[in-house]
Amino acid sequence: MKVCFLVGSGISRPAGLPSVHEITKQVLSPKEFFLSSDGVYRRVEAVQPSPLLVQTQTPEMERIEQFLRWLKGLAELRYAADAGRWVNYEDLAYLAAQIRDDSHDQYENPAIGPLICCGLNSLPGLCSAGKLGELAGQAEDYIADVVAEMLARQPTQSEHLDIFREAASDHRLEEVNLFSLNHDRLLENFLKSKGAAVVDGFDEENNLGIRKWNPALFDCWRTHAITPTVRLFKLHGSIDWRRFRPREAQGGDLASNPWHEEYVGIRSNPALANARDAQGRAHEELDRALFLAGTFNKMLDYLNHVFLELHYRFHRALAHTTRLVVCGYGFGDKGINNRIADWMGFSAGQGKRKMILIEPRSLDEVRRSSRGVIGGRLMIWKDEGSFVHLQFPIGSPDLTWERLSRELLGD
To answer: Residue 34 and residue 44: Cα distance in Å, rounded?
Structure first.
């Protein structure tokens, strides 16, 4: 049997990694960060730059804070009637992205015009009419950098994830696919520490200390599999993913198309950051960590490069399984929810499909907080016998692999 797991941020909370609420609180305090020379926003306390630099940037960070708090107020007005709906950093990133994209003609949206006018009127002196899109882009970058910084913290423990190791070691399962919506590295680090092989779509480290993106690895993993192996697909990217580009050797001709050799990779050995390839070129990191943040704008990025490949893999893996385990995910991503609903609705002669939800909240709470199609169908699926709710937190002694595997392997 082939099994798919879909995991969200709920599996990271027991490890002491920050919650959405904690990240949002930090995002609304930009003056604790500064813009470093590499274009990344970093925490003042951690880097300790010169006081003069921090002082010089204070007005800019105050502008970002004022802009974010204005966006937060707009979102709170919109969601005021939704009981239990509070505005988080993903909402702010989504709003900022819409303003930036429209201002830069990336995704033109006539409905954004009045919002921009409202912003200019509500925030007098903040920026000129032609600069609001630029400020929105700065705010979006700042949010991404805060998220990456906070999720890079060391976990306090990770033993609650052992059920995934047990799944990888169970010889009754032909294939174990882990689809993660998380940006942190908790799950892969835990599995590797327990001796499991994790196929994540990146090559082994090369002489530049970089693991290059190579999705063909997802297809040939069985060839050399001698240890328990899982395929890990990080559908929203990761805090250690970067874009890289070879930098021409000193005195060499500038490339006519500098984007031609760009690629996605992981800097697995920072000590080799200045190493050279066969042409004498160092490979420099571009921009910030490559992951998706934002409530609904993620779905636009699902069509881009690495993410298109990953979501294609999600679609194909679901098409070849009748079992999906969901853990730590609150059904907040409408794109993912649509994929689940389609999978549950069309079996194509494979036999009965079953989704197992590991979630400590009551099913009614889950249903009320779910976005899109999922909330209205959970009870229908339960009545049909195609949905099982295991009401335990991840790591609970009552949630054993024996119990979960009975649900997976049974009718």
So the answer is: 6
Is pTM beyond 0.85? Reply is: yes
Q: What does the pLDDT look like over 273-330, one tens digit per residue?
A: 999 999 899 999 988 999 999 888 888 888 888 999 999 999 999 999 999 999 999 9
Q: How far apart are CA 253 and CA 255, in angstroms?
A: 6
* Closest alpha carbon to 233 in 182, 302, 167: 182
Q: Is residue 274 in some structural domain?
A: no
Crossing angle of helices 20-27 and 132-151, rounded to 10°: 130
Number of Cβ atoms within 10 Å of the Cβ of 300: 16
Q: How many folded domains does the chain comprise?
A: 2
Instruction: Look up residue 92 and give its two tokens.
Output: 């702010």
Cβ atoms of residues 331 and 366 within 8 Å: yes
Query: Residue 183's pLDDT band (boundaries 50, 70, 90)?
Result: very high
Domain end position, chosen among 86, 119, 152? 152
Residue 341 lies in a domain: yes
Q: Are strands 263-267 and 33-35 parallel, antiparallel or unpaired?
A: unpaired
- Name the DSSP class of 216: G
181 and 325, same domain (yes or no): yes
What is the C-alpha separation between 300 and 298, in angstroms, rounded?
Answer: 5
How far apart are the C-alpha atoms of 164 and 303, rounded to whole Å? 29
Q: What are phi and psi of 46, to 5 degrees?
A: -80, -40
Q: Which of 152, 183, 198 is the last residue of a domain?
A: 152
Structural domain span for residue 297: 2-14+157-241+291-409
CA–CA separation, 352 and 321 (whole Å): 10
